[in-house]
Amino acid sequence: MPGSGKTTLGRALADHFSLPFLDLDAEIVARAGQVIPAIFLQHGEAHFRQLEADTLREVTAQPGPLVLATGGGTPCFHHNLAVLQAHGVTLWLDVPVPLLAARLAAAAETKSRPLLATSGPTEKWLLETLSTRTQFYQQARLRCPADACTATAVAAQLAAAGIVLSENT
After folding, report:
1. Is position 44 annotated in a ligand binding site?
2. Residue 11 annotated as binding?
3. What pTM was estimated for this model as a whole?
4. Quick one: which of 27, 81, 107, 127 has the fewest CB in 10 Å?
5. Which residues are substrate-binding (predicted)?
């Protein structure tokens, strides 16, 4: 979900495991030559979701491990969840809606997120969106509750599941 800390945790995990980090949204922006709000405005969400799916497939086809932060909707479209699961370990950052709303309000990020900018009250949109996305999020291999989403905690979950991450895996 937006505001869950995907990019922040992704960078911390990449540092922890000495792996490269990639933010899928940043990669989409680089390839499209437009920021995401402009893509939504000029081409619509369906076009963005196709760019997202195409970029995800290209990124996951590259050799070598990396930590990838996706957008919150990525696993919910174009069979992207299957792609993610086939190429790595998926992690659901399970953050309660009131905390997501507070984070987004504090960061004043609502205007830069196209789905939030036009959706009305943030908490209502977050609840509705989480309701539709939970079926995808629940399929993640690991789940991290909001109060335990640190690189150290996720590394411990990975170790407990027998998953070893390094530049050589």
Report:
1. no
2. no
3. 0.88
4. 107
5. 25, 49, 72, 133
